[in-house]
Amino acid sequence: MSGANAWTRSRERMRLFPELLAQCAVEATAYGKCVTATTVGKQELKKDLCLKEFEALKTCFTTAVRFC
């Protein structure tokens, strides 16, 4: 029974994702640009290269979720 509740909560969060992404468009764009810039050609993304941008996006999402 608890598994069903977890799935329901997860689906609800995914339904909110487009709205949250729109609220965090600036941070998402900055993170995307960083990832793109650090993965030129066949270069792989390395851990923590875009940490500052990721943390900003994470903070924005966390704040946006509180107000939904």
Structure characterization notes:
The protein is mostly helical and 68 residues long. It has one domain (2-66). It has three helices and no strands. Helix 1 packs across helix 3 and helix 2 (25-38) packs antiparallel against helix 3 (51-66). 6% of the residues are buried.
Quick recap:
By secondary structure, this protein is mostly helical. The chain contains three helices and no strands.
Task: Tell me the overall shape.
Answer: elongated
Annotation field: number of helices? 3
The H/E string reads: HHH
- When the domains are counted, the total is 1
Please tell me how large the radius of gyration is: 15 Å
Structural class, judged by helices and strands? mainly alpha
**Cα separation of the termini:** 26 Å
- Whole-number average pLDDT? 88
Tell me about the biggest sheet?
Answer: none
| Strand element count | 0
> Which regions contain 5 or more consecutive residues with pLDDT less than 50?
none
Strand content: under 5%
Percent in helix: over 70%
Q: What layout of secondary structure does this protein have?
A:
Blueprint lengths: L1 H22 L1 H14 L12 H16 L2
List keywords for this structure.
elongated; mainly alpha; about 70 residues
